[in-house]
Specification:
By secondary structure, the protein is α/β, with parallel strands linked by helices. It is built from eleven helices and eight strands. The radius of gyration is 18 Å and the shape is globular.
Length: 286
C-alpha cells in the first residue's frame, strides 16, 4: 500500500508563507505543515490551523537562520550580533559540533520551542528541523529525548533516494551526492536512537535534494516512483498577497501543490494521502 504525507515547512515565517500553505491545503494536496514558533507570523499560522483542523501541524525546530524563543543572552555563541541564530548553516553546524558547552542552553531553547508549539497549536505529532538541523548529532540527541518526554511519536528522517532524484533532475549532481552521504549518515544514527526509544518516521522522503528548485514534472515523476509504505514529500510554498513578493520558486510550489496534474498522478498511482497524525495512530495500534 502506498501512502504519502505532503508537508510544508516554514509555517509561521511570514504572512506570504502562511497564505501559500493555506491555499495549498484548501485547494490542493497539502495535509501537513511544520511551524516555526518564534517567527513573527507564528500566532497567525496557529489561528489558520484552527480554521483548518484537517491540517496536521508539527514543529519546525529552529537553531540556525531564524529567531530563538529564549533571549539571545542565554544562548551565547549560538546567536550572532543581531540576536538571532547564526545565519550560515556550515558555521552553525561546526560550532554546535565542537562547542559542546552549548548543549544545556540549546536543550532549554528546544524545550521552549516544543512548549510554545503546544501552547499555540495544542498538539504535536511530528518534529523536523529548519535546514534539517534536527539530525545534527547535538540536536538529534536533544530532540529524541524531548519527543519521548512530550510523547511526540514522529521525527523526520531526511534520507532521500538520490538516484531517483538524479534520474529526474541531473542538475547539481555533485552537491546532491555529497548531501545524500551526509544526511544518510546522520539519519542512520538518528533512526537507531528513535528505534530504541519507540519513535517512528516515514519509510522514504523526497524534497531534500531538489529543495527550492521544484517543478511539476519533477513532482509527478517522484509520485510515479513512490514505493509501498509511507513517503514524505515536503515543500516550501509561499503566495504573493500584495506585500513583499516571495521568490518565484516558492510561488511555483503553491501552483504545484494545487495542480490537477499532480492530484491525478496521486489518484493514478493508487496513493493514499495521510498525515503524521495517521502515522502516529498506526504506531499506537502496532
Amino acid at each position: 500500500m502506498k501512502r504519502l504525507i505532503v508537508n510544508a515547512d516554514d509555517f509561521g515565517l511570514s504572512p506570504e508563507v502562511n497564505a501559500g500553505i493555506t491555499r495549498a491545503h484548501r485547494d490542493g494536496i497539502l495535509r501537513s505543515a511544520s511551524l516555526m514558533v518564534a517567527e513573527p507570523a507564528a500566532r497567525a499560522a496557529a489561528e489558520l490551523a484552527r480554521d483548518n483542523p484537517e491540517l496536521d501541524v508539527g514543529l519546525h525546530a529552529v537553531v540556525c537562520r531564524g529567531r530563538s524563543m529564549l533571549d539571545g543572552s542565554r544562548l551565547g555563541a549560538a546567536v550572532g550580533a543581531s540576536g538571532e541564530f547564526i545565519e550560515s548553516p556550515v558555521a552553525a553546524g561546526m560550532r554546535y559540533f565542537f562547542d559542546r558547552s552549548l548543549r544545556a542552553a540549546m536543550t532549554d531553547e528546544l524545550r521552549a520551542q516544543v512548549e510554545r508549539h503546544l501552547e499555540l497549536v495544542g498538539y504535536l505529532n511530528h518534529i523536523d528541523g529548519h535546514l534539517n538541523f534536527h539530525v545534527h548529532p547535538l540536536f538529534a540527541d536533544i530532540l529524541v529525548n524531548l519527543a519521548v518526554e512530550y510523547k511526540v511519536p514522529c521525527i523526520r528522517l531526511p534520507r532521500e533516494r538520490v538516484m531517483t532524484t538524479l534520474r529526474l533532475r541531473r542538475d547539481n549532481a555533485t552537491r546532491k551526492l555529497v548531501e545524500s552521504a551526509i544526511f544518510r549518515t546522520l539519519s542512520r544514527r538518528t533512526r537507531r536512537m528513535m528505534t530504541e526509544r519507540g519513535l517512528t518516521s516515514t519509510d522514504a522522503l523526497f524534497g531534500l535534494h531538489q529543495s527550492g528548485n521544484l517543478s511539476e514534472d519533477y513532482v509527478v515523476g517522484v509520485i510515479d516512483r513512490i514505493r509501498d509504505g509511507t513517503t514524505e514529500l515536503y515543500f516550501h510554498p509561499a503566495a504573493d498577497i500584495g506585500g513583499t513578493p516571495p521568490t518565484p520558486a516558492a510561488q511555483l510550489e503553491v501552483e504545484i501543490l494545487t495542480s490537477p496534474r499532480v492530484h491525478n498522478a496521486i489518484v493514478r498511482n493508487g496513493i493514499e494521502l495521510i498525515t503524521f497524525a495517521d502515522l502516529a495512530k498506526d504506531k499506537l495500534a502496532a
